[in-house]
Amino acid sequence: MTECEDLPVSIVRPSIVVSSWKEPVPGWVDNLNGPTGLFLIAGIGVMRTAVIHEDLLVDGVPVDTCANLIIAAGWKTDRDYRSNHLDSNVSPIRIYNQTSGNSAPLTWGEIYKLAEKHLFANPLEGMIWYPGGTFKRSITVN
Question: How far does Cα 30 stand from its chain's mean position?
């Protein structure tokens, strides 16, 4: 707080950032971070098992909605800073948490089955082993 007390600051905290929803094109991704990398290494047959509870919800948010939220948060932060309508009892730093919540409730197991279906229909180049594997709940069983 002391480093930015005189600056308009906001923080955007997305959950798991996944491929795009609409912009620039649906499904666009330019890295192998997060679930994208997980499904790539499973798709080429390198990862055979992982410690993941397949019944838990994946809280992924599309990268284009994150970018839009960052732009909107910056605009709102500037607007509030210029108009000085911030309550002195409230922190001047706004924190925006972005989650999918119940808007797209998919479990890790459902996403895996979907990815597996598409990997069998469209095999990746350079496969080392047939795609597949399992999720485990315990590190010792894994």
Answer: 13
